[in-house]
Amino acid sequence: MTVVKSDLQKLEALLKSATNERQRKMYQSLLDKALKEIGHQESVQLEDKRTDDFLTVSLAPSSGKPVKDRQKQKKKKKQKEQTIEQVLSKTDALDIETIEKAQNSDRLTDPEKVDQKSTKSEGKEQSKLSQPNIFQAIGLIKCIPQIKEDKLYVTIDDLDYELRRGAKWSHRHFDKLKEEIEQNGSREMWLRVYPNIIHDSKNQEIRYWFTLVKAFLSRTNCSEQGEDFVFRGTWRYVSYCCNPVISIHRNIDNIKFYQRLSFKAKKAFARPLDFPVVWSAPIEPFRYNRELVPKEQMPHYFVQVKAVFEDGRFKVVEMISEPTLDVPRYIKPPKNSTKSQK
């Protein structure tokens, strides 16, 4: 009975928490099956109890044959109970475990919940466009995306750049865009993207690509941002680039995810994106001097600008706000020490 009751409770709980008609029908079917088994088990036990009572009253304990018959009845009763429990443990209990796993999976793939999560994430990204105290690199480009060798590319000033998937919540936008091109062909679109960069010191070149946030068929659907890029980061020199860069660090709100990573993954995650820009800046870029103590180093400015991507490089066209020494908190890459690696 213990197995039956626990399974019955689980099924009733799952039926109450069902989120769609398919789940409700499946849980109700299993619940009916469990109730049927319980009814069968109780009827067997009631019949055996009546038999035992009859034997106890009508048969003398001194008679060898009645005692033997009573032992057979008890043995038969025990075997039936064990058989019922085994059946339930191998069927209903297994089904409940499978359903619980499927239900957890449905929570991730339910279209309505995905849409809600996606909308929430998109709203968060859009709200960041007007937030000054974060590190950010995001842009809006007008282009004709194309599929080449099963990859998406955008052409800017006759140069092709790969368009990749973004965060998990934006994967459906990427898949929709690819499906749209496959079915209806390439056409002019507006894409909100994150710029990405690699400084290839071995080949002495800089490579750019973009990750998709969302695609728009009309300019009116993305009017909150102009056809440009927004950069919010620190203005400085880095050792592997001749020109000054705007460094986009990881915002401090990612710290919980960062703390769960391995040492090697932490280094990759916290590594900033350093974008060289053409800019007649009103302040000098920070340049680290090994011979000076921290207090004697030159000022480290946080800047917020708008830039256009032309001829394979970014050119600043406008300052969003004045440079400031109030640098937002960010995640720093771990140091190469034995303690950090643990």
What can you see in these coordinates?
- Helix 1 (2-16) packs parallel to helix 4, helix 2 (21-58) packs antiparallel against helix 3 and helix 2 packs antiparallel against helix 4.
- The two termini are 50 Å apart.
- Strand 2 (146-148) and strand 3 form a beta hairpin.
- The strands form two sheets. Strands 7-8-10-12-11 form a five-stranded mixed β-barrel. Strands 9-13 form a two-stranded antiparallel ribbon.
- The protein has three domains: 2-109; 121-227, Beta Barrel (OB fold (Dihydrolipoamide Acetyltransferase, E2P)); 231-342.
- 18% of the residues are buried.
- Helices cover 43% and strands 27% of the residues.
- With 342 residues, the protein is of the alpha+beta class.
- Residues 101-127 have a biased composition (Basic and acidic residues).
Q: What labels describe this entry?
A:
single chain; 342 residues; alpha+beta; OB fold (Dihydrolipoamide Acetyltransferase, E2P); 3 domains; five-stranded mixed β-barrel; two-stranded antiparallel sheet; 9 helices
Summarize the structure.
This protein is of the alpha+beta class. Helix content is 43%, strand content 27%.
How are the secondary structure elements laid out?
Blueprint: H1 2-16, H2 21-58, H3 64-90, H4 92-109, H5 111-128, E1 136-143, E2 146-148, E3 151-156, E4 159-164, H6 171-184, E5 189-200, E6 205-216, E7 229-236, E8 245-248, E9 250-251, H7 255-259, H8 263-270, E10 273-278, E11 301-310, E12 313-324, E13 330-331, H9 338-341
Parallel strand pairs: 4-6, 10-12
Antiparallel strand pairs: 1-5, 1-7, 2-3, 3-4, 5-6, 7-8, 7-11, 8-10, 9-13, 11-12
Helix pairs in contact: 1-2, 1-4, 2-3, 2-4
